[in-house]
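User: I'm putting together notes for a lab meeting next week and I want to include a structural view of one of the chains we've been expressing. I don't have a solved structure, so I'd like a prediction I can at least talk through. The sequence is below, exactly as it appears in our construct file.
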Amino acid sequence: FKIMGKSKSEVLNIVAPCAKQSFSLVKTAGILLTAGLMLAGLSACSTDVTESTSGLNTLTAEEEREGWELVFNGQTLDGWRGVNMNGIPEEHWVVENGMLKKVARDSVSTDAEGRPLPGGDILLDRTVNNFEFAFEWKVTSVANSGIKYNVLEELTADQRRPIAALGFEYQVLDDPEYPDVKDNPSMGTSGLYDLVDPEVDVQLNPKGEWNSGRIVYDGNHGEHWLNGERVLTFELGTPEMDAALAASKWSDNEEFGIRNEDSFIVIQDHSSEVWYRNLKLKELP
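Assistant: Thanks for the context. Below is the predicted structure for the 285-residue chain, given as C-alpha cells.
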C-alpha cells in the first residue's frame, strides 16, 4: 500500500490530523484508504499543514541579491531573546510548523499561586540603524500584537514594565473586534500606534488568514506597508510629527520620539495568540 511513494502509516499520519476539519476518513483501525479519499482529505486540510512543508522562511534569489536576510529560521528562536532578559520566555513564545507563535496568556502554565508564568516582548538580538523589515502574521479573535522599533533596552528598563519595549509600533490587531479603531485609526492594523493614522484603506485579510507587513525606517523617514501597499509615511522632526508626539500617551517622555541609532526590532507580547512567519531584514546604508 503506497500512494505518492508514502507507506500506509505515513499516509495516516498526514491525513489523520485533517480529518477533524473535513470528514472522517478512518472508521476503524487498519481500514484501507483509497487514493481518492486521501486526496480529498488532503485538499480539505487547513493551510497550516501544507505551509510547514512549502518554502516557508526562505529567500528568493532576487531577495538575496537585494540584500535581504532571514532573521527567523522556522525551527528555533536562535538570535532572539526577551527584552531585558538573557533568554526567551519559553512559556509564551514557541515555534510550531515553521511559524513563531505567541501563546495566549490563558494557555500558559501557572505558578504556585495560579498566576501565568511571566512573559514579555522579544527582540532580534542585534541592533540596526536604517532598515527594511518584512513579516507575515495572522491573528486569532480579539488578538493584539505589533512590531516595535527604535527601541533601546535602557530606556525600556526605566519604565513600569521593563519587559514591554518602549518604541514606535506597527500595530497588529483583530480590527473588527476593536470598535475604538474607528475613532483612533492609528491604533488599528498597520497604524503607527497612537501617532500616525493609515493614509489609505487597504483590505485586511480576516482573522485566521495571513497578512504581510513591511516597515521602512531610514534616517528620520518611516513607512508602513500592508499587503503590498504603502499605508503611511512619517518624518521625525517635522511640525506634524512633533504635534503627534505631544498629543500621544508619551507626551511627557522627552526621549520617546528621538531617533535612536543602533536600536532593536521587537515583537510585542500582548497576551493574545498571534502567529508570525517569513521574518526578513534588509539593512540600508
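A couple of points you could mention at the meeting. The helical segments are 8-19, 35-43, 47-51, 61-66, 153-157, 239-246. The CA atoms of residues 71 and 280 lie 6 Å apart.

User: Perfect, that's what I needed.
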